[in-house]
Amino acid sequence: MDADLDSLRRFFASAPFMVELGVRPMAVEPGRVRTELTLERKHLQHTGVAHAGVLASLADHSMGAAAQTLAPEGHWILTAEFKTNLLRGSRGDKLVCEAWVLKPGRQIMFTEAEVHAISGEGDEQQRQLVVKASGTMAVTQAK
């Protein structure tokens, strides 16, 4: 499993926007990925909650990474369509995204993700669902 996590980390490191955002891959298994983002001032909008673009980017790239774990050798996953439901303002110390493949396929894969805002640590930790997302991922030949 460590080799898979190393591979996922290389995948995220190859996406400059994810690196700049600060998204970290934390766990992987076939068709499933967990990522985290420590919230900083640069991630917030004018009301002090995480910007919708940050939340959507976290969910989208995590769903794509989950699909990539099932892609055949020599193929890349590209987002064809995604929907992000913002359930409430995101305040906290970090965001945790769980993404998974609902239905794999040779040409498209259907994915979902949930993003939770996490505040505190240990027994005092609070976890609140802030985003529910779904995506259609295209399986494309690598060039």
Automatic annotation (TrEMBL):
List, in alphabetical order, the Gene Ontology terms for molecular function in this entry.
hydrolase activity
Which InterPro entries does the UniProt entry name for this protein?
A: ACOT13, HotDog_dom_sf, PAAI_dom, Thioestr_dom
Protein name per its UniProtKB record? PaaI family thioesterase
Q: Report the EC number(s), separated by commas if there are several.
A: 3.1.2.-
Enzyme class, UniProt record, top EC level: hydrolase
Q: Decide whether keyword Ligase is in the record.
A: no
Protein family per UniProt? Belongs to the thioesterase PaaI family.
User: What residues does the Thioesterase domain cover?
Assistant: 48-120
Q: Which UniProt keywords apply?
A: Hydrolase
Taxonomically, the superkingdom here is: Bacteria
